[in-house]
Amino acid sequence: MPSGLLRLLHVRPGEGGRLARVAAIGAAYAAATAIGNDVAESIFVTRVGPQSLPVVFLAKGLLDVLAAALYLPLARGRSERAVWVTAITIYTAVVIGGRAVVASGSDASAYALFIGHEAAWTILTIHWGVYLLDVFDASQARRLFPLLFTTARAGGILAGLLVGLLATPLGAANLLLFGAMLAAGAGILAVARPDAPSVSPAASLRMEAAAPEDDGDNDDDENDDALTGFVATWRRAFASPLVRAIALSTAAMVLVRYGLQMIALGQINRAMDGDNARVASFLGLFGAVANGAGILVGVFVVPRLLTRLGVGVANVLYAVFTALAYALLLVWPSLATAAVARGTRVQLKDALKTPLSTLFYGAEPPGRRAGARSFIFGFAIPIATVMAAGALEAGRRGATNLALVTWGGLGVAALFVAASAVQNHRWRARMIELLDRQLERAPAAAPEAVAAARSHLVDAGTPASAVDRLACGLTSTDARVSALAEELLAEIVPRRRAHALAATLRGGN
Asked: Which of 23, 61, 262, 448 is the most buried (most CB within 10 A)?
């Protein structure tokens, strides 16, 4: 790949090969799940109707708890590649089984496909983030995650074209077989060209068990080694203020996104006269176009947004966009605003919010990340999903045109903005704690290098309380420690100045 293009994409020498391998796996995974989602939604909304979606949300919330509980035993003591292949195998089996049951044409089969697909997808989603955080360090994550998640949008475009062009001639249900083949491809790619991260999730879990972290929950520390199973893991995850903040923000986002899904699908179904092939075709073609736009956003907008304004601003910005989507649905309910709502819920989230969400987990110690994601996906999200099911059902019964749901969604979107700001604050505090722990374990940097870094940091306007730890971190010979210190500095002083200073200190070493 030409060096000029690599610089444009924020890819440094030596990173291209690994990035390409992981991107290929992500694209196949994204294509498979996008096909499954479009087909499941189109069959459900045309057979059963959007008014029954709260029942699906309730069942999904309960099954997500089981999916997360299943994930933890899968991850413990096994390599990330083995876990990924197992999760892909489960997903593929569910999709093929779903194709078999929907042939009956019953409402029950539509429920089974929709709920089964969502539950199997949850396991993949949990592990994908854990795998990525293990492959790339903190500095690489900020630069490469927007591009990496953008390449997954290429898989979304492929899925959209397949569904959009083939749903009518082949039948929407038959496209599930294409999804199963793409999912199998994501597993085969991982086996054929495995990455070799420096520390696997399984090894991280063993390291964490050997040296448990003080998270402010010390009452039962002496019993931690005896506690096995996901309840103990979730209890430890909940002890982190950052995980609690992520849980609050995620719960608000779940409520907001389910509302957008219900309203948008109802308007699309009405516009397509209840024809599942036409609904699937519209969802597919719209997904192809929206994913194309998402690629442009991910490649050209998100990296610059993160560079100039930082992770925190970008995190709040997605919440603001969800509020704007609800406002449009209130002012102008139509197929066009339904498309905007769907794009905000799916493609904009994938391009902007999803890579940001993964970055937040990077502030947790490596051995805690799998447990943190399992807690969010297996506890916080299911609880919010059940709440969403009840709220949407009440809203639907209160106003047949879903106006009450739209007004309620706008109010929750405002809470989502506030919760995102709280999450940003907790994330910065957690990064400081993580840097302190890593500095305790890392070899001490040369005193003259630390002194020089301290002088540069003072000149850059760094707060006095952070100068010493950042000076030690930026001059550390441990690449992951210096990368974390650079990211923390970039959240304190202007990002361009932070990265320029880090580059200067690396050159001095």
From this structure: 262
Residue 415 has pLDDT above 90, yes or no: yes
Give the integer Cα–Cα distance in Å for 241 and 318: 22
pTM: 0.69
- Measure the CA–CA gap between 289 and 293, rounded to whole angstroms: 6
Domain with CATH 1.20.1250.20 in the chain: 20-194+231-432
Where is pLDDT greater, at 114 or 129?
A: 114
**Interatomic CA distance for residues 383 and 376, integer angstroms:** 10
20-194+231-432 is a CATH 3.20.20.70 domain: no
Secondary-structure percent of the chain, ordered helix, strand, coil, rounded to 5: 85, 0, 15
Q: How far apart are CA 504 and CA 174, in angstroms?
A: 57
| pLDDT band at residue 321 under the 50/70/90 scheme | very high
Non-local CB neighbours of 53 within 8 Å, separated by 6+ positions: 44, 45, 258, 261, 262, 265, 392
Nearest to 163 by CA among 182, 150, 148, 147: 182
Q: How many residues does the chain have?
A: 509
As a whole number of angstroms, the distance between CA 116 and CA 98 comes to 8
> Sorting pLDDT into bands at 50, 70 and 90, what band is 199?
very low
Both tokens assigned to 76: 């413990």
